[in-house]
TrEMBL record, chain A:
Its main location: membrane. Keywords: Cell membrane, Membrane, Transmembrane, Transmembrane helix, Transport. CDD domains: TM_PBP2 (cd06261). InterPro entries: ABC_transporter_permease, MetI-like, MetI-like_sf. It is found in: Cell membrane. The keyword tRNA processing does not apply. It holds the Pfam family BPD_transp_1. PANTHER family: ABC TRANSPORTER PERMEASE PROTEIN, INNER MEMBRANE ABC TRANSPORTER PERMEASE PROTEIN YCJO. This is Sugar ABC transporter permease. It is a multi-pass membrane protein. Coiled coil: none annotated. Belongs to the binding-protein-dependent transport system permease family.
Automatic annotation (TrEMBL), chain B:
CDD domains: TM_PBP2 (cd06261). This is Carbohydrate ABC transporter permease. It is a multi-pass membrane protein. It is found in: Cell membrane. Belongs to the binding-protein-dependent transport system permease family. Keywords: Cell membrane, Membrane, Transmembrane, Transmembrane helix, Transport. Pfam families: BPD_transp_1. It comes from Caproiciproducens faecalis. Gene3D superfamilies: MetI-like (1.10.3720.10). Residues 79-271 form the ABC transmembrane type-1 domain. The chain crosses the membrane at residues 20-39, 83-107, 114-135, 147-164, 203-224, 253-271.
Length: 317, 286
């Protein structure tokens, strides 16, 4: 009754309903396809639940036994593999990306053909990782064209078996990850550098600062939030590493399972229908990722606030 | 003074030369493997065994036909399945993310802030962590070997949502919505016919990203699809890898990889300007 008399109040009430309706599909789909599955995954992790031949064992509640099993056996190895392969790919990725972003945004250097370069370096990011890995497998196999050419040129006397050596296999995986991601990182860092107030550089130039000084004293400190964002999202991406090592090593992670990643380990448990162990691996991954997601959230909401403040102040760009 | 300027100029020329040189090497690395792929897909098995060549062979059509005819590799249905999943993912993800973003952008309601925070928190959570429950649940729902679980969940795509929300924040004047209300347009009608057209650039960019992600998706499809006529392209590639490799006609192997990669590259080259711009907008604004 009252609501109808006051037009302002009525407006608020009738429109709030639309807000809920508009966000409903997102949350319904999220609950059905992500939340329930996540909760049941965590639930399975406390049960002995697997298939042996045609017989299904369990589900029997066993508390934390799956987890203690995991930490006693291979989990830490595979987590280690994953992190090593991530970091070896990430270091050159961030270095090259920073270098390119600094060059592209350097007014004095004034590089031409930037559109072309950006297009080319971003391209590997869009291609199918499994197809890319298959391509590398074909090219670097024992009697593939890489070995063939190296022998024809007299560099090697017999084929180098890339996929039989730990360094060769991990090296190829890291190299592919580097190729697929450095362009993406370059573009993100460029956007960050271009967001730095040009007045700062002008002032520094008047004070006689060199390009190098400006890069280390102005650019780097100011793009630190986006560098942190790149680092953490790349780590989350690294933890999901699967397609490339899976296809390259045909799921075995050889030699000596030195290329088996966390998700490949999870995948193996799922194929052997050991839902208890698969659930435990997932739960560990979930906990690690949850911490990382919180970090991303704080970076994002921090920078969002600053965007809002900027707009209020009228520096709107 | 002139001497100083000269040496500064000399330094600049050197710096420029170094940067072009490094860029040239990186571009070579990015392009070389795809060039080899294209070349090898046009050569026959014997030629490929000989090693690298920079000139294409004459067997492109032969390889293509052999691949289509291969009874062990359902390539035609693979392309069709991959396309269906990717196209529907792109449509659902962009439409419903735009809708969610508009819901949070345009209306005031009690749980608005909570909803926004939840979406931001789950944004970077990998889908793999819930795969065990997801696969079991799909099996229980009778959706194993169905394409539905591959595209329907894209209705909730937090990353696409975040991009749309940012786009609305900087491009959407509420005055237009209020004018439409006065004209008697319903809220849903306003969204479909006034807001969506304004969001077209954001939708186009995100549609491409979602399409590509779904096209390349391997982990979940490989767990759900084991019937030959339901498989998508990445699964066929994995199948190729696990087959006895040496018995394979390498021309066909390269051809299948070409089919999986090249359509995306062609679309990318046509739209690269918008895509690169979209990547730059996707991250946090520093």
């Amino acid at each position: 009754m009252n609501a109808e008399n006051s037009p302002k109040r009525r407006k608020n009430i009738s429109y709030a309903k639309w807000g809920y309706l508009f966000i409903a599909p997102f949350f319904i789909s999220f609950i059905i396809f992500s939340l329930f599955p996540l909760l049941s995954t965590i639930y399975y992790s406390f049960f002995k639940y697997y298939r042996q031949g045609l017989k299904i064992i369990g589900p029997t509640f066993i508390g934390f036994e799956n987890f203690s099993n995991l930490f006693r056996t291979d989990l830490l190895n595979y987590l280690g593999n994953t992190l090593i392969m991530w970091i070896i790919g990430f270091i050159p990725q961030i270095t090259v990306a920073l270098l390119l972003a600094a060059w592209f945004t350097n007014q004095r250097l004034h590089l031409r053909g930037q559109g072309f370069f950006k297009t080319v370096i971003y391209m590997p990011n869009l291609i199918m990782a499994s197809a890319f890995a298959m391509l590398f497998f074909a090219l670097f196999s024992d009697n593939g064209p890489v070995n063939g050419s190296l022998q024809a040129l007299g560099i090697l006397s017999q084929p180098f078996r890339f996929l039989a050596s730990v360094t060769g296999t991990r090296g190829l995986i890291c190299f592919m990850n580097f190729l697929m991601w450095f362009g993406n990182t370059t573009i993100l860092l460029m956007a960050a550098i271009m967001g730095v107030d040009p007045g700062l550089y002008e002032a520094a130039e008047i004070d006689g600062a060199t390009s190098n000084q400006m890069f280390w004293r102005i650019t780097i400190p100011l793009i630190r939030p986006i560098m942190a964002y790149v680092l953490i999202t790349s780590l989350i991406g690294g933890l999901q590493m699967f397609d490339v090592p899976q296809i390259l090593t045909n799921g075995a992670g050889n030699p000596d399972r030195s290329a088996t990643t966390m998700i490949m380990y999870l995948n193996n448990h799922m194929y052997s229908k050991n839902y208890g162990m698969a659930g435990a691996v997932s739960t560990v991954l979930f906990l690690i990722c949850a911490i990382l997601c919180f970090l991303v959230y704080f970076i994002m909401s921090g920078s969002n606030d600053s965007v809002k403040k900027e707009r209020k102040g009228g520096v709107h760009k | 003074m002139t001497k100083h300027a000269k040496s500064g100029k000399g330094k600049l020329v050197t710096a420029r030369a170094v940067s072009y040189f490094v860029l040239a090497i990186l571009c070579f690395l990015c392009l070389f493997f795809f060039y080899m792929l294209l070349i090898n897909s046009s050569r026959n098995n014997f030629q490929i065994q000989q090693g690298f060549s920079f000139l294409p062979g004459k067997s492109f059509a032969v390889n293509f036909n052999n691949m289509l005819k291969d009874a062990n590799l359902p390539v035609v249905s693979g392309i069709r399945n991959s396309f269906i999943v990717s196209a529907l993912s792109a449509i659902l993800a962009t439409y419903f993310s735009a809708m969610t973003a508009y819901g949070i952008f345009a209306y005031n309601f009690k749980f608005k802030r909570a909803a926004f925070i939840i979406i931001l928190l789950i944004m970077t959570m990998p889908t793999q962590v819930s795969a065990v429950g997801f696969v079991n649940q799909m099996q229980a729902m009778g959706l194993r070997n169905s394409l539905i679980p591959l595209f329907l969940p894209t209705i909730s795509s937090p990353v696409v949502f975040f991009f749309m929300k940012q786009y609305l924040d900087s491009n959407m004047p509420m005055e237009i919505v209020e004018a439409a209300r006065i004209d008697g347009s319903s809220e849903l009608h306003t969204f479909n016919f006034i807001v969506l057209p304004i969001m077209k650039p954001a939708i186009a960019v995100q549609a491409i990203f979602t399409f590509v992600t779904a096209w390349n998706n391997f982990f979940i499809p490989a767990l759900l699809l084991d019937k030959a006529d339901k498989k998508t392209l990445p699964i066929l590639i994995a199948q190729l890898r696990s087959a006895d490799f040496l018995k394979f006609d390498m021309g066909q192997v390269y051809m299948l990889i070409t089919i999986a990669i090249i359509p995306i590259i062609i679309v990318y080259l046509i739209l690269s300007k918008y895509i690169v711009r979209g990547v730059a907008l996707g991250g946090v604004k520093g």
